[in-house]
């Protein structure tokens, strides 16, 4: 049975049509479910205005899945043995996948709220693969939420102390939502399932530890890095968890309602392979939008290139064209011998693939990007961009402050960072970025590398 069949068979289109947030009128009627036990919802419209407006803006296909999950939540409250669901929510760009996922998360949290001993209890985990995506959706990375360090199979169980902590944090967990699923590989999904099984001490025949899972994304987007996409699993494999999921596809474009022609063009390009030719009409439309390097050319706009060398060339051009007093900061590599004695290497190791640059050229006013996750919940994540506000170099240290494009990035760090004379004297408002340390093995030697986790952007 697919998701749509389950929706109609459950009768929820009749049972849940009174959900206040889905009504365009401001009715205060309490909604009930017609499956025997009537459960009036406490504070049925106790949501902020934006969330209510978002729920009312959903199209019919979005509402069907929303009602299905809402109905499941009520059934789960009545009967803890209610079977979990595994749903794959997909669709092209702008079809409202993220909106629907957020509305579902909010609804499930509201339904189970009255059953919890504390408002801090977690009933829904919103997860994604990268730190940037986690901050953008106000969620967590899969790695941090489920204490996953690596995903090499066979599965490595958690130690008892960490496991106990995880059990306490997720004691009331009912649903996991995984966004940007195209970046999650087979091994990672296996680890997610095994971690949830271990958390609940559930048998192997209960994937995901009897927790419902909603995965969200589009497999035409970014694939896993050095991993197999979920749909590429061997049908006979023990880790073929992908076969458990039922697809629910959104096809109405919501984001570009006022420019559906261009939106449909983007979705046609989305499914092309490298060997496919683009339609002549689509190519003509794109050619019309090409911009030449005239006086009005927006050089400060974000530029996207397909090759790293082009990225480097553009960044270097912008740095030397628009910035002054450019400073070069070299990486510091410290090598440890078998006795634990350390010494600074005369030459840095250039062959090591690292997020810390061997040579970092920066200047006040230069646009930079963080290259690692420093603090996900504070928005200090790999890929977040900002402008360098201040650089101070002394014999012993270098101080760099960055004003990030999103004002909410680094708020917590700014509250905790010490107020120095430099910060107050120069009226600095940016986030202090310190050198970051990375440890790796090179030719059987332990190396600790220190550098600012920044690069030009």
How many E-type strands?
Answer: 17
Backbone structural class: alpha/beta
The share of residues in extended strands comes to 15-25%
Name the average pLDDT.
Answer: 84
Helical content band = 25-40%
* Shape summary: globular
The radius of gyration computed from the alpha-carbon positions, rounded to a whole number of angstroms, is 25 Å
What summary fits the major beta sheet? Answer: 6 strands, parallel
The count of helical stretches stands at 14
Order of strands, main sheet, comes to 3-2-4-5-1-6
Poorly predicted sequence stretches spanning 5 or more consecutive residues: 11-18, 24-50
N-end to C-end Cα span: 48 Å
GO molecular function: 5'-3' DNA helicase activity; ATP binding; hydrolase activity
Protein name: ATP-dependent DNA helicase
Catalytic activity: ATP + H2O = ADP + phosphate + H(+)
Keywords: ATP-binding, DNA damage, DNA recombination, DNA repair, Helicase, Hydrolase, Nucleotide-binding
Written overview of the protein:
The radius of gyration is 25 Å and the shape is globular. The chain has 457 residues and is of the alpha/beta class. Helix 1 (3-10) crosses helix 4 and helix 4 (60-78) packs parallel to helix 5 (97-112). 30% of the residues lie in helices and 18% in strands. It starts with a helix and ends with a strand. The protein contains 14 helices and 17 strands. Strands 3-2-4-5-1-6 form a 6-stranded parallel β-sheet. A 5-stranded antiparallel β-sheet has the order 14-13-12-11-17. Residues 59-260 form the DNA helicase Pif1-like DEAD-box helicase domain. Its EC number is 5.6.2.3. It holds the Pfam family PIF1. Keywords: ATP-binding, DNA damage, DNA recombination, DNA repair, Helicase, Hydrolase, Nucleotide-binding.
